Amino acid sequence: MTTTVADVSEEGTDSPYALSHLDALESEAVHIFREVAGEFERPVILFSGGKDSIVMLHLALKAFAPAPVPFSLLHVDTGHNFPEVLEYRDRTVKKHGLRLHVASVQDYIDRGALKERPDGTRNPLQTVPLTEKIQAERFDAVFGGGRRDEEKARAKERVFSLRDEFSQWDPRRQRPELWNLYNGRHAPGEHVRVFPLSNWTELDVWQYIAREGIELPEIYFAHEREVFQRAGMWLTAGEWGGPKETETVETRLVRYRTVGDMSCTGAVDSDATTLDAVITEIAASRLTERGATRADDKMSEAAMEDRKREGYF
Amino acid sequence: MTSTTEPTVPLSVEQLSATTLLRFATAGSVDDGKSTLVGRLLHDSKSVLTDQLEAVEHASRNRGQDTPDLALLTDGLRAEREQGITIDVAYRYFATARRRFILADTPGHVQYTRNMVTGASTAELTVVLVDARNGVVEQTRRHAAIAALLRVPHVVLAVNKMDLVEYKESVFAAIAEEFTAYASELGVPEITAIPISALAGDNVVDPSANMDWYGGPTFLEHLETVPVSHDLTTCHARLPVQFVIRPQTAEHPDYRGYAGQIAAGAFRVGESVTVLPSGRTSRISAIDLLGEPVDVAWTTQSVTVLLEDDVDISRGDLLVPTKDAPATTQDIEATVCHVADAPLTIGHRVLLKHGTRTVKALVKDIPSRLTLDDLSLHPHPGHLDANDIGRVKIRTAEPLPVDSYADSRRTGSFILIDPSDGTTLTAGMVGESFASPEPVKAEADDDGWDF
User: Fold this and answer.
1) ipTM (interface predicted TM)
2) Tens digits of per-residue pLDDT, A296-306?
């Protein structure tokens, strides 16, 4: 199908040449992927099987079509993953003929390099395997699905965010980002974290998924699941260490807004079984994605900033 | 009016998708109420969600404050909260049924010039905030000058704290008139003045009952309706080549596509194009818009262009219409804003990134430094310090196809980079500093308050 200028003139847009917000965000993200492909030697996409990394991969596929994506993938495996998500990850990697690197938190724990936290949460433990993998593989650009709307420390993050040889983020020494002239210069040992979805919101991500017909792991849609309540969130029962004796399991109709470590990612009550229903639900929600479902961000006022400074994504 | 911003009425998927995007930046000095305005805008447009507000209430209580401090919504870093200061630009997002907004929230106190330049570089609209009690002050003129230098298409003068001047029309009218005269002289193409009280909420999201004399839009309504201009007829078409796509697969053995984001104008299949700086010409045989073939594509679409001939093209080249090619040059004169802490000096060896091309360059001369307060020129300053704006002559190691910044904000801009450590040193705009002043229209006041 071909498009002419006349075809794209829609009511409600400013001119026939104005892009819809989704087209503008998509075009910007593709530009970022192509800048990295043009300027870096060994880029990698952080891929968890969550919706943001799935959208990143979809954008990368479009950016380089009909050629294959010139990046490999990296998953930081906490050992407490949702089985449906791991299955999705492996199927996707195979489908697109990609190469997947895995940095495993469980391996670090097994050989005594990391200690299990008393609260059982493994999210903060991801930083060491991640940064060591980046150094070992000499990745010089690491794509993350982070969005500035997620958290106020992230609102300050650059699209190209320089990390030192210890993968540390220093918010006071960030490069100003002018026009769309991204500066990816880095010394050996340093790398750049790249966030193509910086300007997207949760709703943008979902609308884009709907528009593009992107497949997601089933846990994003309402389904019956055995959960128990901890710190105001519905957590999935499992071998990772829940529920405790005082916590009772019940079956509820839930879905997930984010996908992460099972020990700290909560489900929300929902009957949204379709993409449209999910979008309608999010548009009306009075809770942010992370506020609704992430225990680790609630640890302190600066939890995200502190983790990011250490090298977290 | 309020119904457009009320998210408790669920919007359909179609409604949510038919919106456009407006990028805008705020400029404000220390006490003019910028944080309050941003907080009010986010709060009244229902963009602050319950858990965010709870976090702010909680943090405010911990500090012994009775009412939630909306500035905590935007001060995100540990150091910012500890010291009560704002570091660097933050980007915030909100939406109404009509539009999505990306707000570059630029702090007023610390290193304001480079921060405002950073925020304004991608903005289509800049908000200059003024305290109604103080009127147009030096800082206001500085903000107007930066908006003019960066050629931000729309400027909003938000006359804040109207509640403290008894909502008097005469106060507003005098400030609006003075500002409009000044900004028009700098060549700011469109100025809209709006009387508001960010603290009380007058004319921010909801129309004010205290200012019946004001017939114009509220602040948010203006943001929702300001036309984002895409007049391509006057634009020179430009496509910086980012990446050459060559699958070399059985399915696509001969595919050779030039991928990039169209920086300005439009390209059509069949059009004769020239590759710069080599000067070779060919014809566009196809345009792929992310997997879909199209006949025409325009700014800011990311596309892949295929040519009829096998021309040698690589990253850093610029595709232009043969009939509308810019001259290439190794000598660039530009207005720059120095954004790094170490000064920029004559003889400085730097890297210059223009579009997708990075070349070696030498700072040949710094003929003048601009004093933003009164727009006077300080001749031969010898160096530019952090936040200084000045004229610079640069010699590049290779010829570059630069446009005037007045013609194209994308292909008329560049950054200077320190080759030793990669620091971004300087933001550059090619050509004349300010637009030539347009005569101030003296026609009857039939445009409401659209000054």
Assistant:
1) 0.90
2) 555 455 666 77
